[in-house]
Amino acid sequence: MPLIAQNDRSFLKALSKLAFCNPFLPERIEYEREALGEAFVDVQSIWSKRAGEEERREPNVEKLIERVQEIATRLRESIARGARPDDEERALFEDLILFLLFHRYANEFQRLILEAQEGRSSRSRVAFFRAFLSDYEFFFGLPLVRERPSATETESGADTADSLHQEAAHVFAAFFQVRRAFHHIYECIVGRSMPLARLRAAIWQSVFTHDMRRYRRSLYKRMADMTCLVTGPSGTGKELVARAIGLARYIPFDPASASFQEDFAGSFYALSVSALSPTLIESELFGHRKGAFTGALQDRAGWFEVCPPLGTVFLDEVGEIDPAIQVKLLRVLQTRSFQRLGDSKDRRFLGKIIAATNRNLGEEMSAGRFRADLYYRICSDVIVTPSLREQLDSSDSAGLGDLLYFISKRLVGDREAAALAAEAEDWIRRNLGDHYPWPGNVRELEQCVSSILIRRSYRPAETSSPTRGERLAKEIERGNLTADDLLKHYCTLIYARTGSYQETARRLQLDHRTVKSKVLPDLLEEMKGES
């Protein structure tokens, strides 16, 4: 007789998919709906922090936990009395208990994160591990459950009984990583549009890959080898993306000392190479010996040396690095070794590298300014940050409201945030309109709010926007237009210059009736406005 009844089996299969899915993708909602059926509560499909939100409510998760607790207790009692689960039932039971334990200790993990951000080391003794270990042993210590080897046992070949504490420590570390990843992505990437939802999902994949089961089995030890490249326009939060990834790395937990092996809060090292000379960049990254250059008065360790194996070095504006330094950076990525300036001793770098740029590295390679071999070392994982205009143009965008609130909160605190956000939103709507391009992206929006706070106005920088003809040339270069689109745009462009269908037809060697049918009135008005 099966251990798990059919209705529970359907629920647990959906729960298994939910437990290992990307929480920032729409699939999360579908798995919740599949698991809960008629009890499912319609909620926002995009998990995003909202203005004025004090605490994130998850009504479906609360319903899931209630049922999970009941099934877990019942199945555990049946197994303890001698019921023999088959392989599928053991797998479902394992996922059930992992889901239960994660949510049982989620608030404790969150407290560790907040304490670390306030300056308390996350390497301190973690008191609640003892309770976690007791729960883990209660559910997974049953002989009939452990007939199916765990991921830790399968990889290490350790004896089943001896490995229970190590297995629990690995799960504990993985839970802490999941909680940190969600926290940093959720708190740092604010906005309800689909471009931002996709960005949050892409960051999650950069941390865990698309297959969290495989990640838990073996990849958690190997992700430092995967260099991440973050691209996108200036002012779109590329460092926020890098920080969310860097602060969410897997950190092993030592069950003997009941502490994590590294302090995640101090493991992220950011360097903007555009602000430094080549010599200073080399010194910051690789370190130097005393006398290696003018001003090198003593030995100095660079960030590749200071960064621990579980840490991350972030290179902002990597597209501007001098070619000579590109060669040295390539060596770090290929051999994991480097030398200080003025030194011949090889040193090891075992951390992770994340790079970012607002330049088109394809064009930089074509122009000979960026090495192709370096590019192919850093492009295994690419994340693209959307412009503010892309976010606002999305059909499901909630506008600037949430962004304005959180920018205002940073500037003036909780008490005044809502009032300043409303004032800024009203000023922007009246003076810039809904279609202002925001060329400086979120960074410009932050300066706009600051200026409104101080002067009750904002003056955008005067820049020359590309003409429609220039934008058309760019679209052609990118291959974004169909043949008919190209003909319509070109006919409209020439007609805007000549003002005559006959002359346009003569220049393009087309029938004037064809020209007349292809001219786009809206585009024509836009071109006239540029003249």
List keywords for this structure.
single chain; 531 residues; alpha/beta; Rossmann fold; 4 domains; 5-stranded parallel beta sheet; two-stranded antiparallel ribbon; 25 helices; 7% strand; globular
What can you tell me about this protein's structure?
There is one protein chain. This protein folds into 4 domains: about 5-190 and about 205-215, no CATH class; about 240-390, P-loop containing nucleotide triphosphate hydrolases (Rossmann fold, 3-Layer(aba) Sandwich); about 400-455; about 470-530. The protein is globular. By secondary structure, the chain is of the alpha/beta class. The chain contains 25 helices and 11 strands. The longest helix is centred in the N-terminal third of the chain and has 25 residues, at about 165-190. Helix 6 packs across helix 8 (about 165-190). The protein has helices spanning about 5-20, 25-35, 60-80, 85-105, 105-115, 130-140, 150-155, 165-190, 195-210, 210-215, 240-245, 280-285, 305, 325-335, 360-365, 370-380, 390-395, 400-410, 415-430, 440-455, 470-480, 485-500, 500-510, 510-520, 520-530; strands at about 230, 255, 260, 270, 285-290, 300, 310-315, 335-340, 345-350, 350-355, 380-385.
How large is the radius of gyration? 28 Å
Mean pLDDT: 89
Helical amount = 40-55%
Spans with pLDDT under 50 lasting ≥5 residues?
Answer: none
